[in-house]
Every structure is written in structure tokens, then in C-alpha cells.
């Protein structure tokens, strides 16, 4: 019997959100951020849906992520947003991945490796305009770009930067970053260099700063129907891609004054009915929801009581007459006329929506919905093939001789 904790990924909503983005940015290119397994939604399926909806390219953080997408049949350009070790260069070239260049030595090594193959490596240059995480300094980058543009084995296919404070109330620093990036592009034009693809705007940039669109945009959170600022959600008309549900596994009546859960952090203040859910922090229902979270049962909001455990969570269903084991519980999503969103729950514990979707664990089954129908469901875990385990732990596998010798004993005992 499969565990009833399920995350549903609505691929129709992915397509809808791509169209919302397209309506805002026009013909500019859309580079969808699908790192971290598409923010926990399942990158291969999300990428296929986004590609069908008109996304032009995809962005990831690691070479391995890009290689996995190629193996899943993604043909459109895939851009790395972060620097990777030089050891990844061969895989980058093998899989037609666009590298992220943040320093000259890596660019030179990438170009040299490509020349040995008789090809040109593609790269986007990352410019640091004030986040100070990675990238070539905006004040000194122009001469470096001129130098790198002369490398025979390297084709600089784009240049980009990243907002540091695009979700802040005060957008003054974001506008300064735009000014700095434009300054870099102006310097390059004066040097005779016009790069084919300049990009800056993340989801907040798309929704709040059209002047940051440039040649294309890099939506992440809004691709999944989420916003980091509540007022943007209603204006954008996005559809959440991820919903999550489980079922009550156990119910118990408790008198007033009973302490429950680890650490006895909650005391019943009335005669209560407490239900147990088969979901915990290993599944992405984070421990910060202890005594703070809410879920939906029979269309009513009910409180999380006590500490969220690794595998289980307690809720107070006293005000839900007839609640019993097997009843559906909505973690994120709609039930009857009530809705609990990822953004709401993230704000309640001073987190960001990204953290909650990325936290959904590997043992939570995923259902992927297309045209309103569940088209595929993933298993709850990845199993290491038996042959691989036998190769690692040969002593744990009975030898053929041992099996032959054991047979007569088995027969005799019978």
C-alpha cells in the first residue's frame, strides 16, 4: 500500500504560467530556472511542459542537472548559472551545455578543450553588479570580455547579472544594479562587442521592473505559480503548480490538560480529538510548523499541535465532526472553499516559498497532471540496483557453492 502523502505537480499550470510571463515580456527570450529539480517540482517533466509552452532555454546550477535534462530528452539550450569545476568541462562539451564564466582561467581552459575537439564552447559571462556572490566585477569586466572574445575556442553567447534585493520594498539598489549592467553593455558596444543575449530579470524583476528585461528574462518562482510578495500573486494571475495532500492515519480522544508530542510543547486546553498525519520534516513539512502550521480537513482549517516529527505530525480535529482515519488532509492547496498556499505558510514561519517546495522529500510520491489527468506517478524512492550492491558488498551475497550445499539441508529439514 503506497504511503498517502502525495505532491501533485500540475503541468497545465506550468504552461499557463509560461503564457503569463510571455504576455509580460513579449518576444523576449524566456530562460526558465529549473535548478534544484525545478524547485522540488521534478525538472524533467516541468521542462518538457515549459518547452511545449514556448520557453526558449533552461537554467540550472550544476553540470549534473544539465546532463540529467539532456538524458531526459531536453533539446533546447541549457545554461549554467554558477561556476563549476574544470573537471566538468568534458561533460559540458559532450552535452552541449552553455557554461557560466566567472573568471579568465576557466574560460581559457574551456576554450582550449573545445579547440582540441575542433568546436567552440558556448558560455554566458556572469557580471557582479553588487550581490558579491560570484561574477566578474562590473567596474573592470569590459576589458576582460574583450580579451575573452578573442579566444578561438569560445563563443560568448550571453552576459547576465543577478538582482540582490528585487523583493525588497525599496527598489533603489535594484535600479542601481540595472544602471551598472547597462554601463557594462555600453562599454562593450564602444569596444565593438554586441553580445547576442543579455539577461537580468528574475521573477521579481519581471513583475516589478520592466526596464530589466533586456534580451530575455529568467523566471524561477513565478514559473511554479508562486510569488515572494503577496500583492504580486493577485496581479500576476499565476496558477500554483504544486499541491500536497495526505490522509489521517490515526485519531485519539484526549482530555483537557494532556501534554502531547516531543517535549510536551502543547497542552490540550479542552477535551480534544487529536489526529496523526503520516508526514514530517523529512517529507518537507518543516519543524518550524510545530504549533504554528495549519492544514485543511473537511474544508476547515485545523491547527498543527505539538512538534512536527520526522515522519508524523499531530493536528487538532476537535472542531471537525466525524474526522477519522483515511480522511484527506490538504497540506498545500484547496479543499472545498478553503485554500492554504505555500506562500502563506512560508510567511507564517519567516521562510521563503523556495524553501518549502525544495524541501519536499524523496519519499513523497509525485503525481504529474497534464490536460487534467494524472499521466505519471513516481515511486516513493530510488532503489540502488541489486547488481550494484552485489558488486559493493559481495560478502553479503551467498556464493553459488553455498546455495548448492544448502539445498540438501533444506530438503532434509522438510
- What is the approximate shape? globular
Summarize the amount of helix as a percent range.
25-40%
Q: What radius of gyration results from the CA coordinates?
A: 26 Å
Number of domains: 2
Give a description of the structure:
The chain folds into two domains: 13-230, TIM Barrel; 242-340, Lyase, Ornithine Decarboxylase, Chain A, domain 1. The longest helix is centred in the middle third of the chain and has 19 residues, at 172-190. Strands 1, 11, 16, 17, 19, 20, 21 and 22 form an eight-stranded mixed β-sheet that branches. The two termini are 33 Å apart. With 414 residues, the chain is an alpha/beta fold. It is globular, with a radius of gyration of 26 Å. It has helices spanning 11-25, 35-40, 43-52, 63-71, 89-94, 104-117, 141-148, 172-190, 203-208, 230-236, 342-348, 353-359, 386-392, 400-413; strands at residues 6-10, 29-33, 57-60, 78-80, 99-101, 121-128, 136-137, 154-160, 198-199, 216-217, 242-247, 250-254, 259-260, 266-267, 272-277, 294-297, 300-303, 313-316, 328-335, 338-340, 365-370, 373-377. The model is unreliable at 406-414 (pLDDT under 50).
Amino acid at each position: 500500500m503506497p504511503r498517502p502523502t502525495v505532491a501533485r505537480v500540475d503541468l497545465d499550470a506550468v504552461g499557463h504560467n509560461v503564457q503569463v510571463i510571455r504576455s509580460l515580456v513579449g518576444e523576449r527570450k524566456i530562460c526558465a530556472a529549473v535548478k534544484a529539480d525545478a524547485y522540488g517540482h521534478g525538472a524533467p517533466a516541468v521542462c518538457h511542459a515549459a518547452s511545449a509552452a514556448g520557453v526558449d532555454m533552461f537554467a540550472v546550477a550544476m553540470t549534473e542537472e544539465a546532463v540529467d535534462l539532456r538524458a531526459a530528452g531536453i533539446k533546447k539550450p541549457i545554461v549554467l548559472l554558477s561556476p563549476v569545476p574544470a573537471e566538468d568541462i568534458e561533460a559540458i562539451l559532450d552535452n552541449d551545455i552553455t557554461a557560466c564564466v566567472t573568471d579568465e582561467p576557466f574560460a581559457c581552459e574551456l576554450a582550449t578543450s573545445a579547440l582540441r575537439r575542433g568546436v567552440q564552447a558556448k558560455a554566458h559571462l556572469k557580471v557582479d553588479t553588487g550581490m558579491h556572490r560570484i561574477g566578474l566585477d562590473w567596474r573592470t569586466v569590459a576589458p576582460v570580455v574583450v580579451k575573452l572574445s578573442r579566444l578561438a575556442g569560445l563563443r560568448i553567447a550571453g552576459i547576465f547579472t543577478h538582482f540582490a534585493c528585487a523583493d525588497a520594498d525599496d527598489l533603489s539598489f535594484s535600479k542601481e544594479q540595472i544602471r551598472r549592467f547597462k554601463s557594462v553593455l555600453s562599454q562593450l558596444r564602444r569596444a565593438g562587442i554586441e553580445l547576442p543575449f543579455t539577461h537580468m530579470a528574475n521573477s521579481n524583476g519581471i513583475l516589478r521592473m520592466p526596464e530589466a528585461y533586456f534580451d530575455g528574462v529568467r523566471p524561477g518562482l513565478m514559473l511554479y505559480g508562486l510569488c515572494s510578495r503577496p500583492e504580486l500573486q493577485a496581479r500576476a494571475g499565476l496558477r500554483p503548480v504544486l499541491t500536497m495532500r495526505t490522509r489521517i492515519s490515526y485519531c485519539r480522544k484526549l482530555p483537557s490538560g494532556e501534554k502531547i508530542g516531543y517535549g510536551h510543547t502543547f497542552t490540550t486546553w479542552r477535551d480534544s480529538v487529536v489526529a496523526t498525519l503520516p508526514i514530517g520534516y523529512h517529507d518537507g513539512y518543516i519543524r518550524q510548523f510545530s504549533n504554528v502550521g495549519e492544514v485543511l480537513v473537511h474544508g476547515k482549517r485545523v491547527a498543527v499541535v505539538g512538534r512536527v516529527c520526522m515522519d508524523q505530525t499531530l493536528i487538532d480535529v476537535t472542531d471537525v465532526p466525524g474526522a477519522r482515519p483515511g480522511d484527506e488532509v490538504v497540506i498545500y492547496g484547496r479543499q472545498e472553499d478553503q485554500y492554504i498556499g505555500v506562500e502563506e505558510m512560508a510567511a507564517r514561519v519567516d521562510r521563503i516559498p523556495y524553501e518549502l517546495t525544495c524541501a519536499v522529500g524523496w519519499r513523497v510520491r509525485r503525481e504529474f497532471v497534464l490536460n487534467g489527468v494524472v499521466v505519471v506517478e513516481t515511486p516513493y524512492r530510488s532503489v540502488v540496483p541489486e547488481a550494484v550492491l552485489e558488486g559493493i558488498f559481495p560478502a553479503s551475497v551467498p556464493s553459488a557453492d553455498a546455495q548448492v550445499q544448502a539445498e540438501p539441508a533444506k530438503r532434509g529439514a522438510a
